[in-house]
Amino acid sequence: MTLEMWEKMKSNIQLEHTEYIPKELCSGILYVSQRFQVAAHLCACGCKSKVVTPLGDCEWEFTEKNGKPTLSPSIGNWQIPCRSHYWITNGEIIWSYSWTEEQVEKGRLKEKEIRESYFNSKIQKKSVFKRIFEWVTNRIKQFRT
Ligand SMILES: [Zn+2]
User: Fold this and answer.
1) How far is the CA of 25 from the centre of ligand 1 (A)?
2) Where along the chain do its domains lie?
C-alpha cells in the first residue's frame, strides 16, 4: 500500500443503532445491536465483506461519544481475502499496516524531497531579502556620503 492509497482510504464510519443487523449493509455504517450485543459493518477497504463483531467482556468493546462509535480492540480481517486491519475510533477508520522496506525507503525519500524543497525556497527568500537589504544599505551609504 502506498501513502497515497492510505490517504484515500482514510474515512469515517457512521453509527446506526438497530435491533437486528440488516441483511444488506451499507458501507460506511457501523450497525450496533445493543440487544443482541453485536456490531456489523462492511469491511472498510471497500471489498464489501461483512464484518461481524460480537460485543462483550471478552469480545469487542463498543463505546459511543457524541454519536461517534469506537470499537476496541482493532478490526483484523484476517479471515477475508483483503486481510485489512484497522481501528474504528471516534467514528473514524484508522488503518494499521506494516510498511515494507521499499515503502519505508520511499517515504524517507519523499520526506527528504519535501525538506529540500522547503530549504531551497527558504534560501531563495533569504537571497531576495538580502538583495533588498543590500540595496537599502547601499542607498543609505550613498545618502550619507
Ligand atoms: Zn476488505
Assistant:
1) 14
2) 3-99, 100-145
Say how far apart CA 70 and CA 65 lie, in whole Å: 8
How many Å lie between the centroid of ligand 1 and the Cα of residue 126? 50
Residues with CB under 5 A from ligand 1 (ion): 43, 45, 47, 82, 84
Residues 6+ apart with CB under 8 A from 106: 2, 3
Q: How far does the centroid of ligand 1 lie from the alpha carbon of residue 134, in Å?
A: 61
Task: Give the Cβ contact number of residue 43 at 10 Å.
Answer: 19
> Which tens digit of pLDDT belongs to each residue from 21-66?
999 999 999 999 999 999 999 999 889 999 999 999 889 999 999 9
* Single pTM value for the model: 0.62
Grid cell for residue 7:
490517504
80-126: per-residue pLDDT in tens?
888 888 899 999 998 876 445 565 566 667 767 777 777 777 666 66
132 Cα: distance to centroid of ligand 1 (angstroms): 58
- The CA angle 91-85-60, to the nearest 5 degrees, is 60
C-alpha span between 95 and 91 (Å, rounded): 13
